[in-house]
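Archive entry. Fields below.
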Amino acid sequence: MTKGVLARYRDFLPVTSATPIITIGEGDTPFIRSSTLEKELGCGELYFKLEGCNPTGSFKDRGMVVAVAKAMEAGSKAIICASTGNTSASASAFAARFGLTSVVIVPKGNVALGKMAQAITQGARIIVIDGNFDQALDIVRALVEKHPVAMVNSINPNRIEGQKSAAFEIVDTLGDAPDYLFIPVGNAGNITAYWKGFREYYQAGISKKKPKMMGFEAEGSAAIVRGEVIKQPETLATAIRIGNPASWGRAVAARDESCGVIGSVTDDEIIAAYKLLAAKEGVFCEPASAASVAGLIKMIKGGMDVSDKIIACVITGNGLKDPDTALSIAVSPAESPADINAVEGFLGWD
Ligand code: AN7
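PREDICTED_STRUCTURE:
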């Protein structure tokens, strides 16, 4: 049986004798070596951490399992989050499985189709606000001051605790930390969590080094890069369409302490990386997830030499979440009569 994050890493997590060791099968995701891009880009070794293989299709399950276990331990009957989609998909799955009520506040028109489908089918109480993620998060912060409901956004420290398990898994698999960790940045919880995980394993003597943390925001939402809150963030990578990252300061600390970079990539660069991952590696991710690889490509084009470096890119979510984006940039397939000769004609095989 799949152990799950709480059982596997309990010594590093805020687990007490009263914490329920719950799981939906999260964690232990594939860490695969690049077949093509490693050589084409000139990397020493290039790996992808496939977080879209978590049960609800994104890395959020790792943090949610800890946040929900601690909420249950404290006697909560309901959980609430603001979300660009994946947090709501994860929260509603845990709530459904463990008998809690889930409330999710999402921005109108900017949540990918699959994520909405998950939250709806898993029985969340969904409020679609006429506003963006940052406004949704402000509302959730105010609601939890007034009502007895547990907040499961990444400002809940238990979310960060669970998400750091992905860094542990990378070290457990590689035998040490990579030289560089490339990761998309939205609300900046995940870069915070990875950095915490790499630091803890280093301090425990399990790894000999710590990676440079390389976080990438979407250009239209690049608050950290620009050094100012963006009131109207824009990007087709809706998961990271966030203009006032909650873990801003901790992302900057991760960058500075690791001698890393927080940069930005354009939507065109995101889509180019998204297509490359699908077409050259067979990795179908959601657009936001491709920001990690887009950042790597941008840095290499800018002159960064990684020919003897070990690089890990976090692929945060599954491409099936966002079929609309996939189809909107694809060439429509040929339509043929149901006839072998016609099909051969289209294939050029006659
Ligand atoms: C696929 O679901 O913020 O920098 O509300 O879904 O930790 O925010 C999602 C974020 C990257 C950014 N990749 O991570 C939400 C939400 C995917 C994501 C991010 C998100 P953070």
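CURATOR_NOTE: The CA atoms of residues 61 and 90 lie 6 Å apart.
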